[in-house]
Amino acid sequence: MILKPWLAHFLRLFFKHLYTTFAWAYDLVAWTTSMGQWRTWQSAADHDRLECPILELGHGPGHLLLDFHRRGYQAVAIDASKEMTRIAARRLRRQGFQPAIIRARAQRIPLSSDTFANVVATFPSEYILEKETLDEIRRILQPGGELIVIAVERITGQGIQDRLADWLYRITGQAGDPGDQWKEPLEAMGFIPKLERVRLPRANVLRFRAKKPMS
Description:
Blueprint: H1 3-18, H2 26-33, H3 38-42, E1 54-57, H4 63-70, E2 75-79, H5 82-94, E3 101-103, E4 116-122, H6 131-140, E5 141-155, H7 160-171, H8 183-188, E6 192-200, E7 203-211
Parallel strand pairs: 1-2, 1-4, 2-3, 4-5
Antiparallel strand pairs: 5-7, 6-7
């Protein structure tokens, strides 16, 4: 029990560096720790056809943004990591797309107000519920627009690898029952929140929706 907080701290620090210093290894680590399920979980963001234009927060290595472009969506993405910005831009160019990518923080989005029909974030850290972030999301969403956030509730596969992944995600705080606390900051900013549980073959994924009122 004494080791658990230290281990959790170490793993969180590791994942932080994975997004910057070791961004080149992100895909491999994400695939390994999720037992190959990461991209399947991410696809839950597009379960229903999204309205355009779309803004992706924290695009990472650019897989979901590439999916959006392949579907013909009008999509823009931001990320604070210069390493991830470079990786994502290169991925899109290799597939023949001109990347609409901006290096910026979610707490200060350099885009016009009332612009986007959907804002999407997959597996974000705690920043997503910060007042500054939600204030910016509300500003850039069109009236009636919606924020969609994807997170992992738990890995349900019964194999040894799945059980190990479930333990890893829980100890680092990347999975678990969200309770009702997530609603409070959204409601305080005027959003209309809704939680959907998506059952996948080896995991249960959470899809948070937060609609901006029409007026």
